[in-house]
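Lay summary. Proteins are chains of building blocks that fold into shapes, and those shapes determine what they do. In this project we predict the shape from the chain. Here is one chain we studied, written as its sequence of building blocks.
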Amino acid sequence: MGTWIQAAHPTIAEIFAETGFDYVAVDCEHTDVDIKDFAAVARAMHGRGTPCLARVRENNTLAIRQVLDLGADGVIVPLVNTAEEAERAVQAAKFPPRGIRGYSYVRANDWGVGFDEYAAGANEHVAVAVMIESKRGVENVESILAVDDLDSVFIGPYDMSGSYGVPGRTDDPQVLEGCRRVRDAAAAAGKPAGIHVVIPTPEAIDKALSDGFRFLGLGLDTVFLARASREALAAARGFTKK
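And here is the predicted shape, written in a compact code that computers can read:
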């Protein structure tokens, strides 16, 4: 049960980290969050007990390596369509011999002070999830989930709707069937399927859990801010009319 950050301010990260979420993910794909912004968020969350994940901008070795070096506990990699692409993401996140992640003195290992300890445990502790957000990804989901050291798949329903030719219609039967296939394949592989509950009403959360999703993204900072401010203003205007 985590949440997402779009406005990558350290204060937001601190608040979320103290809320009790199981993780906080920073969206580096659909925002103007750059590597320095992510570093500030990772510093704000450090030592607070809440894992920091990064949805990287693309399935790119350097993009994955940089956020991990800066202290990300895992990555969510967008638009993965094949097992080969999933394998590339895993290799970028893992040190040799499993992958190709480079060694260096970085923030994640306290600038070398904890080099040996971090290097020894990172391959086990760094999480790798890939996003299934296209018709092609759905068609290949079973082989994607078979990739060793891939921890989870996370559905992108809006992009998925676009790939089926019904942009924004996440309740279209084709999109719903794609989500079901991803969920069922993940269950068969023994890996959690994730989905973003953008508007986290009790009904929407209950449906996601009832549908078998176990890696939930609950809202995001911009949604929480917009909804709470509108509700407060509506309440205040209601009182002034009395």
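What the prediction tells us: The radius of gyration is 19 Å.
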